[in-house]
Amino acid sequence: MPIVDPQGFDALNLFPLQINPHFTNALPEGHKGETREQRIRETAGRRARTDDYWSTGR
């Protein structure tokens, strides 16, 4: 998922959600960057509206 708005996620236009099947809460040992969740929260805070996301709990 790009950190900037690509002007839409219409793709097949089946439903108004973006699915990210690779989302994980894992924090690999030695990882020195931000987690996916931190990036999502930071990005959502910069928008006029926020997007919800679901985790599979893995």
From TrEMBL:
Source domain of life is Bacteria
Answer yes or no on keyword Hydrolase.
yes
A single GO molecular function, which one? dipeptidase activity
| EC numbers on record | 3.4.13.21
Q: Which Gene3D superfamilies match?
A: 3.40.50.880
Q: Where is the composition biased (Basic and acidic residues)?
A: 29-52
Q: What's its top-level EC category?
A: hydrolase
Q: Where is this region: Disordered?
A: 25-58
What GO biological process, any one, is recorded here?
Answer: proteolysis
Swiss-Prot/TrEMBL keywords: Dipeptidase, Hydrolase, Protease, Serine protease
InterPro entries, per the entry = Class_I_gatase-like, Peptidase_S51
Similarity annotation: Belongs to the peptidase S51 family.
**What name appears for this protein in its UniProt entry?**
Peptidase E
